[in-house]
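Retro notes
What went well: the complex prediction finally ran end to end.
Inputs used:
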Amino acid sequence: MSGIMLRAEGLTRRFGEFTAVDRLDLEVERGTLFAFLGANGSGKSTTIRMLIGLLVPTAGRIEVDGVDVIRHPRRVRERIGYMGQKVSLYTGLTLLENVEFYGGLYGLERARLRARWEAVRERFALRESEGERPEDLPAGIRQRAGLALATLHEPRVLFLDEPTAGVDVHSRGLFWERIQEETDAGVTVFVTTHFLEETDYCDRVSFIEAGRLVADATPAELRARFSDGYRVRCALAPEKLAAALPVLRAAGFAVEAGPPESAELVLRRPSLEGEALEALRRTLGADAGLRIEPSSMNEVFRRLIQEAGAARREAA
Amino acid sequence: MSGEAPAPSLSLRGLVKRYGRRRALDGVDLELEGAQLVGVVGPDGAGKTTLLRSVAGLLEVEAERAYVLGIDLRGDVGPLKARLGYVPQVWSLQRELSVFENLAFTARLHRLGSEELERRAEGLLERTGLAPFRTRAAGALSGGMKQKLAVANALLPEPELLVLDEPTAGVDVVARGEIWELLAERRRSTLILISTSYLEEAAACERLVYLDGGRVVANETPEALRAGAGLELYRVWGDRPRTLAAAARALPFVASARAAGGSARVEVPRDASPGEAAARAALAALPGALLAEALPVDMESVLLSLARASGEARA
C-alpha cells in the first residue's frame, strides 16, 4: 500500500465550451487533514464530485485507496464517507431511523450497526437527539449528525464539502475538534471551507482558481512564503539580554529592540517550529509573558491570489 | 428643529415576523442612530435575513414600534425604498444587461441624470476593479465580480441606509477586501447593516447586533463585547499540536481545545479558570509543550461566549 490515499492526474472537466477543472494534479497522503480551497465558481465542487465518483471527468485519472474511481465508482463508495453542504439527513425520519436507513445502504449488519452507532453517538454527543427529526434540530447538531452518519461505516477517507457553512462559531469549533480526532484515528479527511482561518486546523492546504491548482503546501509553508510570518513580542530583563540575543539570532530570529531603555523585544521569523520554539523557551521560560502574532491566513491568501493573478497575466 | 436630538435612523420595539406558527422574529428591540457600520451576527436560523428584509421594507411585520428612517414599516414603505440600498443573499442583478447597464438601470429607477450616473459609476467601477468589464454581461461575471457589482449597484443612488445580507459569502478574500473598502468609505455618511459569518468582518464592524432565537441578545461595540466575554484564551506551542490539544481537553478547567497552526488553541470559561498564571503554567507543563501564552480575547471567543450565554438564558 502506498502512502497516498488519493491521487488525481490531469483531471479535467469541461461543460460545453467552459473548462471547469483544468488538468488538475492532486495527491493526498494517508491520515492527513487536507483542505481544498477556492472561491465560488473556481471548480472546487466539480472536483469533489469527480473525486467521489458522482461525475465522470472529461479527461484524467483518479485513484482513491488504490481503486480506480472512474472504472469502479461503486467499489470506491464503501471506502469513502461524504457530507455535502446540505447535510443529507432525511426529514420526516428520526435521527435513529436515518441511522438504520444509512446502515442498510452501507450494508452493515444489525449487530455491527448497533455497536457502531453506540460508539459514534457518544463521540458526537447525539444521544439526546436520536429520537428527534433533523428538521427540528439546530444546525450545529444537524451538522454533527451528518458527520456521524458519514463515518458510520468506518470509511478510510472522508469528503466534507463546506461542513461549517451556515453553522455558528461555537459549533464550528467543536466540529473541527471532531474532524481532528478522525484524522488522529487514521482517517484521511478532504475538506473544503470558505473560512480561511480554518486552514490552520489542517495539515495541508491546496487552493484552486479558475480550474487550476495554484497552491498545495502546509499552512506553515504558505505562511512563510506568502506573509511576514510570525512576530513575537516579549520582555527580557537587561541582565539576561546579552546571553539571550545570540541564542535567538542563532535560531533564525530577526531581533528588533523595543523603545530605548525598555526591556521589550520584537522578534520576527518566517516560521515558528521546533528549534525556534526551543530557543524562545530557553531564553524566556516556558510560560513567560510573551505574545506570538502569526500573520493571518487572510493575509496569506490575499497575497497568494494576487501573485497567482500576476503570474497568469504574464503567461497570457 | 434646532436643539432637538436627531431621530434615530432605526427604532424597532417588539418586532415580530410570523411564518405560519413559527416566529422568525420574536420581539426584536433595536435602536440605531446615525451613520455607522453595524454587523448583524448570530447562529444559523437566528432571524438575521428576516430582520434585514424587514428593515428593508420587504416584509409585513407586527410591532409596537417599527420606524426606519422615520418611516413606519407597518404603513406605506414606498418612500423608504427610494432611500435605501439592499443587497439580498440571492442574485439581484439583471443577468443579460452589461455591468454598466445594470448601474444605468438603477440610476433610472432613482432618477439620476446621465452625467451624475457617469460620474458615480466611474468611481465605483474603478474601485471595484470592474472598469475593464463595463460591457460584459452581468451573468458572465465571476462570483466575486457579481457581488462587487451588486454592492456597487446598491451604493450608486448614495442611499441613507444600506442593507446587505451576507454580501461576501463564498467570495474570494481579495474581492471581499474590495467590497469592505467600499463600505468603509460610506460608514461616515450611511447607516450600513451587514450580516456576515466571517469572523474578521464581524471584528471590523463598529457595532455588532447579535441575534438568537429571533431576538436581539446583544447590541454593543466589538470592544465592549470583548471586555464582557466570559472566556479566556490560551495557546500552547509544541511540535505535536493535536496531541497537545487532546491533553489540554483533559484538564478540568478547559472547555475546548484544537490544533491551529503550530499550536493548540485552548478556551477556558472565566468562571472555571484558575487564573491566568496558573492556567498558563498548567498548559506549559503538558507533555510536549514548549511554550504557553495567554491571548487577548478574539472575535471567535466573543461570539462563542455570546452563544453560550444566550443558550443558557433560554435553558
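What we learned: Chain A is about 35% helix and 25% strand.
What to try next: split runs per interface for comparison.
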